[in-house]
Each structure stands twice: as C-alpha cells, then as structure tokens.
Batch of 2 targets.
Target 1
Amino acid sequence: MTPFRKVLLIVVLTLFAGYISLPREIPVKFNLGRYVVDYKFLRQDLHIERDKLSISKNFDLVLGLDLAGGSHLVFEADTSGIEQDKKGTAIESLRDVMEKRVNLFGISEPNVLISSFEGRDRVIVELPGVKDTKTAIGIVGQTAQLMFAEVGSEEEPGIIPTDLTGSDLKSADVVFDQTTGKPAVSIEFTSEGAEKFARLTEKNVGKVLPILLDNQVVSAPVVQDKITQGQAQITGDFGIDEAKNLAIQLNAGALPVKVELVEQRTVGATLGAESVEKSVTAGLIGLGMVLLFMIAAYGKFGVIANIALIIFGILTLSLYKLIPVVLTLPGIAGFLLSVGMAVDSNILIFERFKEEKKRHDFANALEVSFGRAWDSIRDANIATLVATFVLANPLDLNFLHTSGPVRGFAITLGLGIAISLFTGVVVSRNLLRVLVKNKPIITNEHQ
Amino acid sequence: MDWMRYKLIYFVFSAVMIGLGLSGLIAWGLPLGVDFQGGTIIEYKFETDISTEELTNNLKSEGVPVSVIQSTGPQTYLIKLPLVDEEQKLKIASVSARLISGDLEEITTPSADTVETLVGVEELRFETVGPSIGPELVKKTIYAIVIAAGAIMLWVAYQFKSIKFGTSAILAMFHDSFILIGAFSFLGHFMGAEVDFLFVTALLTTLSFSVHDTIVVYDRIRESQKDYSDNMYDLANKAVTETMVRSLNNSFTIMFMLVALMLLGGTTVKWFAVALFIGTILGTYSSPFVAVPLLVTWDSFFGRLGGIKERAFSSKIVKRIKRS
C-alpha cells in the first residue's frame, strides 16, 4: 500500500471514529444575514436489522458512579458458620438474592459483584443514580428470614419455630387490610408450603400464630380456621414503603448469610457533573499547552505530531464508546496522562531525526529515525503496559485490585498507550511520507 | 558531555532525598485517608456560607465526633469524622440545616427522615469505609508492586540480555517511589494532603513511568554497544547526552497535562495530580542520574572482578528466563 492510500485510510478511520465520538445532540445556532439557522444535530446509534442479522450498538459514553452520581456499597458476609466447601455457593446465592432485590427495587443497570480476598467474602453493589441510599441499604442488606412459629403450651411458654419459612413462599404482594385499611403484605405459598400451612393452622385453631422476620415478631394473628388455599397476610405496623420493601425482600428470598455494610460511597449527580466539567476544562487547557509546545519545539514536525495527537484523542474516545469503558474520574485522569505521553513517540523520533539529518538526506533521515526509534518506543511502552496490565487486573485475580478507581485509571492509561503507539508511529510516519516531496532511497526494515 | 564524572554527586543527592523522606516518615508518618484508616467523609453544599468553627462547635455539642471541617469551594464543605451510621449522618445534616436557617433554638433529634427533605443542605458526597478495607488495600498494593516490578525486571533483563540493566532500572524505580512516599509525609504535614486509593495508583504509575524513561536511555547504550566501544562509561555518557532533550520534552508535555489537572481538576483529583507530577519529575531525573550511574558503577565493579564472570552470570540468567 502506498503511503498516500494509508493516509486516506487513516482519514476514513478518523472520520468514522469522529462520528462515534460526537455527543448525542449538538445544537446548531447561527445567523447568516437573513437566514437564521437553529436546529439540533442528532448523532444516530448503530442499528442494523436484516433477516437473521441484528446489530445494535449505543454510542453513548458510559459514566461511572463518581461522575453520573450513585452509590457504591460493599457488604461483608458473615460466613463463619458455613463449611469451607459450601462457602462458594452461599456467596453466589447471596449475590443472586441481592441482585434480585435491587432489580425489584426498580434501579436500572445495577452492578452486583462478588469480591473475595483472603477469607473475607464481600458483595459489591453499585447503584447508579440512587438518591435514597438509606432505603436501598435497608432493602439489600437485611437478611429478611421469614418464619412461622407456634406458641408453646402453658407449661412450656414461648415461641417455637416451625419448618414453614420464607423459602416456602411463591410470591408476596402489597395489599391493604380490609378491616383497618392499613398496608399489609399478602403471601402465597408454594404447594408444599400450602400443605405445611394447612397442617399448622389445623393444629393451632383458636391460637396465636406468630410470624417472625429475622427473629422479631412482626405479626401475631389468631387462627380462626384451617387454611388450605395456601394464602396468608402479614399485618404488621407497616407504612406503605415498609410493606413494599418487605414484599421485595420476600419475593427475592432471604439472604443465605448475614451481611454487614463495610463501605459506602455515594456521590450526588451535581458533584459528578461538576467533576466532568472541571476535567474537560483541565483537559482542554492541558491539550492546548501540549499542542503549542510541540509547535514551538519542532515547528512543522510539531504540526504533524499535533494532527496525530488529535487523531489519538478521537480514536480513544470512540473506543471508550465502542468497548465500552466505564469512565470514572481517575479514568479521565488516566486519559489526560496518556495525552501527555502520546507525543512521546513523536518526540523520540524527532530528536532522533536531528541526529540522523547529519548523516542522511531529509527523506532518508526520516525513515531511519522512525526505524531506529521504534526499538526504544516498543521496549519502553511494553514496560508501561505491563504495569497497567497488573493494575487493570483483566483476569479478575482476587489478590489484586478488583475495584473501581485503580482499575478505571489503569484501563484508560493502558488503552491510551496502546493507541498512541499507532498514532505516534504509523499515523505520523505516513503523514510525513505523503508530505515529504523527495522519496527516500533506502527503505527500512521496520515498516 | 561527561555526565558520569559527577556520579558521586548524584548518589549523594539521592541519598539526601531518601534521608529527608525517611526522616519525614519517622517524624510525621504517612497522612492516611479514610481509604486506609476507615472513617467517614461528607461533602455538603449549603445555601449560604457558614463559619466552619461554628458548625464544628454545634456538632460537637450534639455529640457528633467531628475531626475536621474544611471549605472546599463556594458554599461547599467537607466534614471528616470517624465511622458514623445513617442516624448520625442525618443529625449532622439537621444541625447544618438549622445553622443555615439561623434557628438554633431546638437542636434535639433529627427533624427529617432523609437529607433530601432538609432545606438549604445538599449532600454532594458521602463516603464511609470500614476498618477492614485498609489492610486489604495495603496488601493488594504490595502484591501489585511486587508483580509489576518483577515482570518489568524480567522484561528489561531479557531485552538487554543482562541482569545488571534490569536491576539498576528496578533500583531507580524504588528510589523514585520511596522519595514520592517521603514527599507525601511532608505534604501531609504542611499542606493537609492525604494518602488514599488514588495515591496508590499514582505510586504505581510512577513505577512504570520511571522504567519507561530508563529503558529509552538503556536502548541508546545497547545500540551504541554494537557500533562503538564496549566501555560502559563512555556509552553511558553518549546515551545520556542523546536522550536528555527527549526526556525533558516528554516530561514537559506530561507536566502540562498534570498542572492543568492540579489547578482546574477539582479537589478530588488535586493531590492525585500532585503525586503524579512529583512522580514524573522523579522518573525523569532518576533515569540519567540514578539508573545509569548505578549501571556504570556495577559495570566497573564487576569489571575489576573480571568481566567474563559477570557476563557468564547474566547470560545464564537470561537463558533461564528464555527457557521459562
């Protein structure tokens, strides 16, 4: 392929990436004499549907909790009473129940992950855009073990738990008590549960049948008659929200182990938006300084490096959207740092060129510089990529950082370095080849 | 230029920096933030500006164990305190709301169910970290450093066919990270900086950045080795001269981005950018003035003992790496 064609390819690639990088809506407003232009430019998402083929891709930036606002909760499971070989399944079902509860609570795109490290088992719950964290913590973190009990005889007073528990439930719903009008939770048993319930009610006609939630009596109805339909009602001292939350917990099931909240990070949407705004300003000013510096230091070559740098920015942004990379505040810092590092390849090459110019003519010196500098660029960047690889921990190794900030930073920095290898070497080299008039005589082994 | 003539000066300078860092760490320790120590951070935006002193006093008289209240911007305040629960959080918000409205009469129990319903107070951020998180963070960081440093050392040793390159690069890398840690004991003591999750990230980035720069210099040594003499002293001088402008220029572009972040990026990333900034300067300095002098010293030391022995030693290791 001739350099000219390669440049053409790069231009096409950049235009494509540039389109993806655009925000969803761009208001266009200007006055042209008598013509007033005022419309909104809309960027479309990818949506292809043809027979069996269906591709759908959303080109929006995915913002992390610290930028979009939301809650990051870490629950630690008390697995002390569980045998070693059953721990894994217990934690997995814990995650599943928590995820179910979050979904039932009506939060869009929650993230529920297991994080275990040296005998400590944790579940991380990420809730985007949640304002009422207190309720969310209550719903997710409460064990919610429902239990039906009998009252002991006069000789042996007290509450005797039965084998009818929350796991015998089919569903739970919020209803309003017909006599008092207060909110209550109606429950429906599975067929097995219904049998148990029938036996239990038959045995206890005329007696109290306490219903316990996490070993606390929530309601103690008196059994009037044997109940065979497999339905019951919990009428505690509930408000409407409490009833709703209990229904959610019962529908999702009880947590298999007790959990404790050990970490909470909640960021309001205002602060997140402010952070985005500040980072963008800082990024633009920093970028401006880099661009000016490159022109001041390398003149025309600096312009080429700057074009490559802008292409770098566009490609990186579009890749964030395509992969997609969840962008956090440290992630943005990683991106900005990679902008500063992206021109490194060009600086290496241009400094090399100053030396090679003494020995070769212009075009040849250029080729030799790119070839020779490549060794340094490759070796140095691989070392940095190794470090970002360990930090980003893509294999999800338990003994390394598995959480947000460190990872977010490493992913954007690593991605930035990888892309800068392409833009700093391939893009700027071909741009220079096209712009240099006289063709090189010697060709280099590193193409 | 004969850079290596002043080897001793560089070593003394590094020793002084390390000594300073060490004394700072002994005197004040590291300013550990909530990520390491556990505790709570709340950031509020109030309707009007308040006096932090008055808020501290009001909260303290209510039995809330406040440690620090800082103003972080117009009408925004950061409150640091030990681990608190939801109830105490609500109390803090209520006390603040009363202070803003000027109604100081009846500060008793929380006046509302959630912070959202309080007038004049907006909760920007709420972070609470239990005591078990910190030790885990330290352990994970140590693992990450050991793995990253080991992998980088193997890569450098393999690329340069000699263990002395790898070792010198790693020593320079630890030199940089140690001085960075020491610098933060000073920044913590005098300017209120804190060591958190992000500092760990900056530390690890400094590691990789330091090696990145060192490799560029090593690469010139390796390249000249083929064409010119085999005298490490001369090779080192030549390589440092050839890479000096590049090193400086590259650091400048990175520092431009970091200065912009430091000044405009907001409070959350300010100290992170400062840590990266110090790391960048250290990484740039340590390549020609620590890693290369170490290499030259090592070479002359083993050269006196007999170059053959050393070469046999390093080639054996390289072979072993290749096999594995």
Target 2
Amino acid sequence: MRRIIAVLLENEAGALSRVVGLFAQRNYNIETLTVAPTEDETLSRLTVTTTGDASKIEQITKQLNKLIEVVKVMDLTDGDHVERELMLVKLRAEGDKRDELKRTTDIFRGQIIDVTDATYTVQLTGPSGKLDAFIRAIGKTAVLEVVRSGVSGIGRGEKILSL
Amino acid sequence: MTEHLSGGDMLIRALQDEGVDYIFGYPGGAALHIYDAIFRQQRVEHILVRHEQAATHMADGYARATGKPGVVLVTSGPGATNAITGIATAYMDSIPMIVISGQVATDLIGTDAFQETDMVGVSRPVVKHSFMVKSAAEIPMIVKKAFYIATSGRPGPVVIDVPKDTTDPAVTAAYKYPKSVSLRSYNPATKGHTGQIRRAVEALARARRPVIYAGGGVVQGNSAELLVRIARRLNFPVTTTLMGLGAYPSTDRQCLGMLGMHGTFEANNAMHASDLIFAIGARFDDRVTNNPKKFCPQATIIHVDIDPASIGKIIAVDIPIVGPARAVLEEMEPMLEQELTKHALPDAAALQDWWKQIDGWRAQHGLNHEMLAGAKAGDPVLPQQAVQALLEVTRSEAYVTSDVGQHQMFAAQYYKFDAPRRWINSGGLGTMGFGLPAAMGVQFAFPNATVACVTGEGSFMMNMQELSTCLQYGLPIKIVNLNNAALGMVKQWQDMQYGGRHSQSTYRDALPDFVKLVESFGHVGMLVERVGDLMPAMTEAFSEKNRKRLVFLDVHVDPEEHVYPMAIKGGSMRDMFLSRSETN
C-alpha cells in the first residue's frame, strides 16, 4: 500500500537526518522525500511517500511522532488529498521526432522549457502516475535525463496540517 | 545581578542547578575547559573511571537505583565512541541519562581533526534526543531541555555535544538557569484516556482467567505500590518481565515470577491459557512473546504504556491506554473499587479455579528454590545454588546487578526481589560488561547499601579495569562470579541447536587466577569450588569484617548446567524445554 505522509518539523540543523535515519534504522522504505521551509520559517514541511501494510504505516507515524523535533504528522492518504510532483525531462529530439514529442508534451499539459537542435527539455507536473505515463508514452530511447522532485501533498478542503 | 560565566562554568553550574551529585567521566583534550570548571567547584563530584563505557553503565546503574538521571562526561572522538554501548544500553531500557561529550572546536568540525567524531550522528539511533552547542549562551537552556527530555515521557539518554570553543574560559555570557521549559513539538502523555481506563476496568472485573503482566515501566514509573494494591484487591496473578522484577514482591503468593524465554512454567502457562492480559509498562518483547502468531490465543489484551509506538507494535491490543503507569493506575483504582461493589465481581469461583490450575503448574514444574538443602559438601556448585546462597545471606535486601548470559537468568529466576529498583540488568540490549560498573553506580548512590554483582567470567572480563576505580573510591561491592570457564549461554545454544559444537565459546586454559587478579587491585578474593564452601564464603563476603571491602567470590560452577525453562523457538508461550530431556 502506497502512503503519503506529511510531517511538520522544527527547521533546525540535524532534524532532517533524524527523520531519514529513522526510516533506515527501522527498515522502512522511502520512495520519495521532499522538504522545504514553510511560510513560518521555524518550520519545515516534509512529504514522504512510503509503502507498507496498515500496521507498518501506523508504526511509521508513531515513530515519527516520537522524534523530538517532529511537530505534527499526518497520513494524507487517510483522506482526500492532492499530490503533485514536478519532473524535468531531457529528450532526444531530432528530425521528424520533434513534432511528435511536442504533441505528446501538449497532451500531457507539459511545457518545453529548453530547446536545442537535438534536444527538448520538458517540464511536467502532476500526480506521480501521470509522470510515469509520460515517460512510457515517449519511450525510453528518447529519454536522456530525468529529474523528479518527489511528491508534495496537501489535504483537500478544511483538512489542514499546521501548528 | 546577572552572573557572567564561561561555557565550561555554565555547564557545571547548570548541572548543580539540576541537583546532580555525580558525574561519571574521563577527561581528554576537547573536554579540558569543562574539566577545569569541575576542578574549581565542590558541589558536583566527578568520578574518574577507567573506560568511558563503564562511565555510562555507572550513570545507568545510578539512574536505575535512584530514578534520577545519571550524568556522563567524555571527551571527543574515542571518548565519545566508547560511550556508545552504554548509551545504547540505556536507550533500550528507557533509562534517563545525560551524556556530555567534548567536541573539537567549531571551526575544526568536518576537517577530520584530531579526535573528531560526529557524535550527534554516531549516537543518533540510540538516543532519545541530542544537542550540539553552538554558543556558550545556549548552554543553560540546552541543559534544561536535555534533563526534561531525558526524564519525562518514556525516559532515555540525551547527548549534549560541546565544541571546545563554546567552553572557552575567555568567552563569557550571562548565566540564568531556566525555571521551566516547554517544547511545542514534545508533549508526552501525563494521564491516560478516561474512557479507555473505564473499558479496562470493566474487562478486569469480568475476567475469569486473568494475568497481570508488569514490565520495567512499572518500576521506572514508580507505580509498584499501586500495582500491588490493585493486584491484591483483585486477587489476580502477576508475572513480571526481566525488567519488571521487583515491581511485585517475588515472595508473594500471587507472584508467578518472570515470564518469557526463561520464564517460569506457571507464568508462561498462565499467559497462554489466560482470557485477559493486563499488560502495564511492558512492551511484548520477542523474548517474552515467542511466536507472536501463537501468542495467548484466548486473551483480551489491555496494554498501558507511556509510548504509543509500543502499543500494537508486536501484538494487536484490544484496549490500548497511552499514559504513565502511575497516573493510569491512580485513575483506575477508584473506578475499579466502584465496579467491584456494583456487580460483586470478579467472579470468585472462576478465580478460585484459575488459582487451582496455576498452583498445579507451580507444583508440577515450578523452580526449585531449595537446591542447597540436599546438596553434599563435596558436590560441584550449581549456579542456581550460588544465587540461592546470595539470597539467603542478603535476605532479598541487596541491590543485585548482573551482566548478560546464563548467570543473568539464574539471578533473575532465583534471587527473590521484593522491592522495585533492586534488580539492575541490561535487559533490552543485553550488554556484557554492564554488571560491575552498574553496581558501582548503585553504590555511589547508596554508600551504605548492600550491592552485589552476579556475573560470569566472560562478562566480568569486559569491564574488569573498573576494579581500579573501586579501589580509588572505596566501593565495597560484592562480586559473585559464576565461573563456568565458558560463554555459558552461547554454549547452551550450541548444545541445543548446533549439535554440541562449541564454536569459540570456551577458553578454559586461558583464564586468569581471579583471586590473585582482584588481590592485585587491592581487593579481597575468594575461591569456591565445592558446595560445602559456598555458604561459609558467602557469609564471610558479606560479614562485618568485609563491610568496607570489595570482595570477589570466584565460584567455580558446574559448566554443564543449562538455564531452564527455555522457550521452544517458533512456538507459543507454553512451549518450553523444561530440562535436557523434557518439553512441555
């Protein structure tokens, strides 16, 4: 079961290493991890995607909560939520391939943000599955380089993770 | 008037303000400013150890016996890494401890400077929390937070890493020790959920085959007295974990002794057959549950623990209660009283049948506590007899520390603890070398108390350098060395699971003459080779003549002896080996 866990963390040196260390130490899986300060500069917000059965996820959230610098933890997948990921992908774009790549990028609502004679660099945002689908649609041979931000997530409506 | 102090002086002053009486430590370059601050004051006494691991175990023993946090001071690099085993030991058993480590100066951090180690990084998986000091001005608040975190909620060790420049005597800052501290991200439970406690009370009152399963949380949470009152009121059987020994008086009829891998026949059978388990301050450790899938199939489980992550981690729980043992029991007691009068519960007839069954198990395969009685003077000493002799001479009143292995289990099974905080051992991490320094920490805390260390020659040799510290400070510890010339528990497993192939578990011809060894450190050594010599030697060791001396009893025990009962791997709690030839 894939889970998206949001964490509010004291924005202090070493706090992130405790979170990452916890996952390694307890044999939990990190698929993606994003982190940045919030509008309140004393807080960082992390989004971790992980996998595990219900009891494992329960342990992960409990163990995260035990870390002194963790302020709040929320399993976004418990309720309605929005997840987005940013991908930059550099494609081999030569000859008659260029039109097809442009069309596919448009279909996925991506933007070409850098162009050379031989390459396109595409920016794409969306749920992780959409980014995977884009790569599949383009085909592996055209893909030169992929950079993905990892998932950021937020609860829908009134569900708010804050102090 | 605000005082201005250097970082080194602030650190020591803050320890004074926390009421610290001892620091266990070892000096070195990065800690020298702090050591100079220690020299220039009298209120905190520094105990100079011989190895930093021992310093952490001393602080740990002190903390377990008193309930107050133990304090350790080490230098950077090897000083810090040597402390890790002791920090991990405290972490696994939730012992409050403050470890102050010197660090290279801030501008040298990350340069692979002399004696530099990333202590915050190295210790991270085995601390409750850690701090790195950035400036002297931060020190009072960091110390305050460290003590608060170490001692509240589920206690644990906290590291304060102190770069040398932050303790520079030339740099001073205003010192004011904070009166209180609050952390927005750390709010440990201070009481249980009333609705859940009510559900637990109802379940307790209706139980027909109940067992109270009490762990180290009862000892550490200072709630043994309350537990005894409630257990007696209910007439429920009580079993304790290795860490919980003494939470309920061992000599009481309702006490089934220890449960788990080397638990008693009656405790493990009662757990398996129970319809209600009241677990408090225990964590369903793998050494207790055996195979979790086969764990106590008929039992409704109430679990009280201060740490929510302990609840439901191994075994699914029916009635979880997050809170400190004491607060939960305090709230529970009047509710229970009300419930019991309302319905005339618990069912007395059902309980009577349950006790009959338990007494039957006891009679069938209970531990034999009279092994000295029938022994012939010329017989080899059984390790159990040595513990029984210790019990007889010290009358359940001693503080008993142990190391890890067979001797630890024999001590746990046969020494009858009637009060909490008297049994001091490394339960979670299983640290050999713990016993002697832990005993020293206890003796510092209670200079007039009887402190015994039950050890084995393997464990003892892991920290025996502390005999020198014992001489320096005149610690009259009594060491009972159950010497089987082998790593007994390893050998037992090899006997049982590896066809008797004793791979790297014996060293008979390479052992020192322990009597001469301890004598060379200025202590008293005695050799016991036959049962007939056991009681006289034990009596002499604890006699008035040796009241101020460290006495080391080198008891040569029968090396063939195994610890039983022993859980059968993969089975349920009632699946046990009872001897070399019997299983249950």
